[in-house]
What does this fold into?
Amino acid sequence: MLRQPPYQQGFHMPAEWEEHATTWTAWPRDDDYWGGVLANAKQDFASFLEALSHWEFVQLLVHDAEAEADVRQYLAHAITSGRIQLHHIPQRDIWLRDSGPIFVHRDEQLQAISWEFNGWGDRFPSQLDNQIAGQMLARLKFSPAAIHEPGIVFEGGAIEVNGEGLAITTRQCLLSPNRNPNLSKTDLEQYLHHYLGLESVIWLNEGLEGDHTDGHVDTITRFMGRRRVVTTLCANPEDANYAPLQENLQTLQDWRDHQGEGLEVITLPQPDLVLWFDGERLPLTYANFYIANGAVLVPTFDCAQDTEALEILRSQFPQREVIGLPARGLFHGGGGFHCATQQQPVGLIT
It folds into this structure.
């Protein structure tokens, strides 16, 4: 049943570029899941965490004592200095954008929305990761009154917000029957309004080929400002991604709010590198960057488009340092830097 708290509840989901208190993530550790590339994934992720920890504090979940010992080999100095803090919380996957809570503001207070996580439409075991949000919030000493549970399946990577009530998502993900088959588009928009304070939603159609999340928006299109977005384009008309990404571009260019204001749309190349893993194409993308305090950390793939993508993003984030970091190994798990992180905005915890 749709739970409808009063509109005056006043939830507000900040944009990612607003100040963070810290960033939450988890350490990769399941050799079976990573299928022989775990060492490469760890190296990529360690480089990312080392860079991120220079800009803000990092809260890193480790599955057990073995995982803690492992991560200390990669990040000993950052851990010893306190820039990376470890938490023993069991988990299967590192993708806290989807399994963790979404933090929102209510007046000056920080509140948390704890969704149901079902392994991206029951593709993967989810019981362990569905407990992450509750354990994170317990560590933060959130009061029960500050934790809100809508009772629906939802993932943070499925939504992109501008901090002023406008969101972008995809039909492929939010309307997929393997998540909330009894909810309509209107129902889902009501949830986003009630729990995230969103007033308008731009619905793109599809995401990238090989994205086992059913087309999360954070692999294709991102806000960079109030009305400024970057969206991924494919240069090869023969590529399966070409037509869907062109359609998304047209949707963004055509969108207008009720006052007739549109979006400034910047395009970002898709890597021409095509990698396959376990019979599926990897959803390589530069759009899965993470906006940290003072920096933008961008996945790179040692291919021709790396330089162009970084130049575009540097032109769009002149007040931040834009840093390219290797991510081929990490993407074998299905995602990148944004998928693996969840920002905790500045705010009073009660």
Observations:
- The radius of gyration is 19 Å.
- The chain has eleven helices and 19 strands.
